[in-house]
């Protein structure tokens, strides 16, 4: 999960990586950090803000105030802007530096490019090196990548790379990226911070947990996962099909399948039936979140059961539907695996109108019909 830039930069500063002087503002502009010019940057957990108008260079307090007023309360790339970072603009040439977990090699990948900035994806100059997950190994890999850079700031970039590696390893991050990294003889500084945390490690990482807890609106999905113990991610607040699914792969497959048919899935969900322990509580929670969206037209339950007893699951689903007063749309259930026939019998009695099938195509066709027919 991507942190907003201000939180990423807070981690950078704690690990000795230089960042511009700055202040996070949520309403009005108190005092400006240092002399201008300043950058005003929308704090939303998404990249590509520069091209979308979320990064503005300002030369006076009046300009800063206008930029902040224009951003706060607006939406940027699907996210509400409720905070801006106002920073002293950095100067220097732009470079790109990233370190990420490379799961296939049980190691890290270090990437460096002498052409940092907003067009890095289209630049052919980025070079990568694989190395073992230790700051010293990252430092060696980076030394090769920056060997041709000017000697008057090369050591500073090497130090930043080593600090970045310690940050990634200590906090069990998935990725850390600085783009642009401003370089000059008078000082190198991180112009941006892209930090991707691994939510599976959050139990061991109190600093990451505290950053997430401090911004419940920005990190709603992560807060939900920490509180509930399973994954539910809202993909599209205007989605029409709520998904009750178990298994990340099955949920992603279904999202792709629905999207390919022109349907609008609302959410990703890995409810983990094995952890439900005879209680409909998780199902009730998921139905609560799904039915909070007025665009909802249907609920699709898709369970591919290996160990799960579908008879037991069906009983819990029936109880959860009973306990969901806001649920006014049809529910379609595709249930495959152990005790599917028993599940059909239980749901057939509890919810006579509901389609319960083992056939995914039949379930999807019913969803198409409901969405097509809905007003
Ligand atoms: P992103 O588009 O979401 O990655 O946001 P960035 O923070 O990377 O900002 C986009 C672009 O704005 C950068 O690639 C820079 O070209 C420019 N930019 C950002 N911060 C500064 C700064 O402090 N000084 C200068 N001169 N340019 C900046
Ligand atoms: Mn950037």
Textual characterization of the structure:
This protein has 375 residues and is α+β, with helices and mostly antiparallel strands. The chain folds into 3 domains: 21-88, ATP-grasp fold, A domain (Dna Ligase, domain 1, 2-Layer Sandwich); 93-202, 2-Layer Sandwich (D-amino Acid Aminotransferase, Chain A, domain 1); 230-371, Succinyl-CoA synthetase domains (Rossmann fold). 35% of the residues lie in helices and 25% in strands. Strand 7 and strand 8 form a beta hairpin. The longest helix is centred in the middle third of the chain and has 20 residues, at 151-170. The protein starts with a helix and ends with a helix. The model has no long low-confidence stretch (mean pLDDT 95). The site of manganese (II) ion (MN) has 2 residues, from loops.
Helix residue percentage: 25-40%
- Under CATH, the topology of the largest domain can be stated as Rossmann fold
Number of domains: 3
Number of strand elements = 18
**Element pattern in H and E:** HEEEHEEEEEEHHEEEHHEEHEHEHEHEH
Instruction: Write out the CATH superfamily name of the largest domain.
Output: Succinyl-CoA synthetase domains
Q: How does the major sheet shape up?
A: 6 strands, antiparallel
CATH architecture of the largest domain: 3-Layer(aba) Sandwich
Q: DSSP helix count?
A: 11
N-to-C CA distance: 36 Å
Radius of gyration: 24 Å
Summed up:
The protein is α+β, with helices and mostly antiparallel strands and 375 residues long. The protein has eleven helices and 18 strands. 35% of the residues lie in helices and 25% in strands.
């Amino acid at each position: 999960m991507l942190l907003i830039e201000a939180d990423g930069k807070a981690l950078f500063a704690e690990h000795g990586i230089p960042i511009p002087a700055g202040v996070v503002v949520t309403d009005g502009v108190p005092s400006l950090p240092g002399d201008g010019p300043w950058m005003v940057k929308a704090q939303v957990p998404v990249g590509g803000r520069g091209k979308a108008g979320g990064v503005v260079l300002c030369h006076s307090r009046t300009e800063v105030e206008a930029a902040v007023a224009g951003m706060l309360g607006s939406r940027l790339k699907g996210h509400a802007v409720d905070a801006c970072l106002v920073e002293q603009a950095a100067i220097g040439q732009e470079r790109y530096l990233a370190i990420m977990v490379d799961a296939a090699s049980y190691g890290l990948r270090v990437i460096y490019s002498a052409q940092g900035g907003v067009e890095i994806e289209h630049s052919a100059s980025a070079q990568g090196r694989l190395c073992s997950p230790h700051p010293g190994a990252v430092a060696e890999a980076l030394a090769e990548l920056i060997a041709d850079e000017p000697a008057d700031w090369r050591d500073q970039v090497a130090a930043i790379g080593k600090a970045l590696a310690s940050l990634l390893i200590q906090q069990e991050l998935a990725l850390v990226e600085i783009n642009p990294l401003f370089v000059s003889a008078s000082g190198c500084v991180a112009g941006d911070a892209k930090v991707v945390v691994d939510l599976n490690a959050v139990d061991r990482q109190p600093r990451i947990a505290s950053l997430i807890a401090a911004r419940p609106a920005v990190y709603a999905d992560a807060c939900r996962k920490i509180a509930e113990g399973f994954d539910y991610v809202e993909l599209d607040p205007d989605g029409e099909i709520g998904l009750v699914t178990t298994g990340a792969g099955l949920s992603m497959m279904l999202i792709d399948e629905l999207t390919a048919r022109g349907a609008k899935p609302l959410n990703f969900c890995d409810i983990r039936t094995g952890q439900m322990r005879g209680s409909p509580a998780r199902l009730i929670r998921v139905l609560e979140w799904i039915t909070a969206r007025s665009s909802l037209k249907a609920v699709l339950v898709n369970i591919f059961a290996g160990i799960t007893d579908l008879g037991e699951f069906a009983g819990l689903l029936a109880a959860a539907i009973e306990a969901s007063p806001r649920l006014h749309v049809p529910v379609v259930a595709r249930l495959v695996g152990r005790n599917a026939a028993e599940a059909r019998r239980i749901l057939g009695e509890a919810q006579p109108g509901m389609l319960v099938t083992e056939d995914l195509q039949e379930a999807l066709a019913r969803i198409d019909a409901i969405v097509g027919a809905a007003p």
